[in-house]
Amino acid sequence: MKKIVLGMIRGLAMAAAALCLFSCGKKDSAKTIKIGVLYSTTGNFSLSETPMQNAAKMAIDEINAAGGIKGMKIEPLYVDYGSDPAMAAEKAQQMILKDQVTAIVGTNASNTRLAVIPTIEKYNGLLVYNTFYEGEKPSKNLLYTNTCPNQQVAAFIPWMIKNLGPKIYIVGSDYEFPRKTIIFAKQYIEQAGGQVVGEEYTPTNETDFSSVVNRIKASGADCVFSAVAGNSNVPFYKDYVQYGMDPKKVPLCSISSHESAIKGVGSAAVGNYASFDYFNSIDTPESKAFVKKYQELFGTATTVTNSAEGAYHGVYILAKAIERAKSLSAQDIIEAAAGVEVDAPSGKIKMHETNHHCYLNTYIGQVQEDLTYKILASSDGLVEPKPE
To answer: What is the domain extent for residue 200?
Structure first.
């Protein structure tokens, strides 16, 4: 009898140790892995974030259908913060303290990310951030799955000067991402022999760009470097044509007008350019299958964007990191994410070994009559992320 009891004790100890592998540092029993999905499906950034939530859901459902992570299903918690940074911070705290999520996937605009980071760091949580950003002062508690400036702007500026002309007018929304990224852009403009002929910033909810367009017209610019973000892209592009500018002669060259914005603009967008790590028109079987499945699941009222693809592969990176991690603690997952590779719609991508960012491609595209981007140039392989 004593041998049986000792055997049972040993068995229970082994079971407890196995359970601790994925639950130490968490109060839940790890029967499921709770993931917060924090995006705005309402407000000024809903055009950008609704496709991101859709793509994150698509990835989560695929992972669960394939058996989950270590046999545990992902339990998603979808929350809309209404494009309000303060609300996003409040919701993130609730997810961590009340809902006991293992990680949060989401936020979009830099002012929202920056509002959420103190909460993530205070409670030693993990945020998987899926939007192109200014690359400044990255947090040790974040995994960044989209571009920083050297992956988006460094190739775009010389291409603009070579193909469109040296005189560049700069317009950006008035918050961190446009302002900080434009600092980098101006350095690249100077290095490539370009000239800044105007620079201004508009409110994030701006709807009237008539005076901006008139100043661009008077500047003699060859092209416009645009960091106008969110839903404001729609009135900007429409006003650009309405008030006398021809994109075929003086195009907008954007780092923030993805396919959702272009769809909202319509024919006024034709002829303009953008630079991202992914366009949904990339001619590969993986990208085509991704877009096809997205449309089957969510229809065509929204559309796949580079940030949506970033959310999709961001969930897969998170899942693979959790699978490799010693526990469900944020720091163990972040440590396990170093060097992770996943097959994404844009191709194979990889997390940097030390700086929490992804090696990604760079593409330059032009808006066509069917409101898709035609790829005109691309990087020769993955570009190393170099956040400041």
So the answer is: 151-277+365-378
